[in-house]
Amino acid sequence: MIKVDLNWKATAIADLLEIVDYISDDNPDAAQALKDEIEDKTSRLPDNPKMYRTGRVEGTREMVVRPNYIVVYAANVNAVTVLRVLHSAQQWPQA
User: Fold this and answer.
1) Domain locations in the chain?
2) 59: phi > 0 → left, psi -120 to 50 → alpha, else beta; which?
3) Integer distance in angstroms from the first to the last C-alpha of the chain?
4) Cβ distance 61 to 75 under 8 Å?
5) Which CATH class for the 5-87 domain?
């Protein structure tokens, strides 16, 4: 069986930290719970990278973590790369 790596782009890490920071201003527990949920769900992507819907940008897939939070990732035979973590109200990046 091929080992599939999980990688995070710097932009995705920054997205996640920005979202957590914003939520933690009002509710630190909710912010930590969201961060944990995103990290838990993304950690399972290498086992089943096609589990989530095809992305709006070609070559990507989208995992809806909660109705307002979407993890955008790309997958190939060797790796799953988390590209962005977005709030659904954000303008959608082209890549």
Assistant:
1) 5-87
2) left
3) 30
4) yes
5) alpha beta
Entry pTM: 0.90
Which tokens belong to 75? 């997958």
Tell me what pLDDT residue 51 has: 92
Helices (H), the chain: 10-24, 28-43
pLDDT band at 94 (very low <50, low <70, confident <90, very high): low
Compute CA distances 81 → 2, 27, 33, 46, whole Å: 16, 29, 22, 9
Query: For the residues 62-77, what does the mean pLDDT come to?
Result: 93
Number of C-beta neighbours around residue 61 at 10 A: 20
